[in-house]
Amino acid sequence: MTLLIAGLVLFIGTHLLPNFAALRASAAARLGENPYKMLFSVVSVAGLVLIAIGYGRAPYEQIFEPSRTARLLLPPAMAIVFMLFGIANLQSRIRRLVRHPMLGGLLIWSALHFMANGDLASNVMFGAFALWSVFAILSAEHRGKRPSYGPGNLKYDAIGAIAGLLVFAIVFYFHASLFGVSPV
Fold this sequence. Notes:
By secondary structure, this protein is mainly alpha-helical. It has helices at 2-16, 21-31, 33-57, 68-87, 93-98, 101-117, 120-142, 154-179. Helices cover 78% and strands 0% of the residues. The radius of gyration is 18 Å and the shape is globular.
């Protein structure tokens, strides 16, 4: 469990830094913009690796009965999540309407997986991601961070949705071998 928590601290801590403009600017000024971005990426990836290893090694301890409703909702919701991830950085109409599609998708993913599992390691990991995504959305809104893509382009909606659905199909098909749990 220590590796899981350390990974979450690294990953989420790194992603909290941009919410503090002065701190982020100071780090970027001291290191230089590109070295700052490189360090940000390296620490983020290290956090994800520790999360994956820590989650896999965590002892199984059931905390609450998993929600059958959440388990039923997961496959169609995950298709939507992957489409949101697909359009997150495109000049799409959906991107303009949803405003924070990556964080919204992360919130859906983490909240449903939290309810569908109920074990301690899942509660820690999915709960941390859910709380962070809510904080990040509220922080972005508070800072006035909104997409500036104009009206958006339907072509990018289609590209993002198709790419997201393709990745969803691959993850869905290999879910049991990747994560040790069948998605249905």
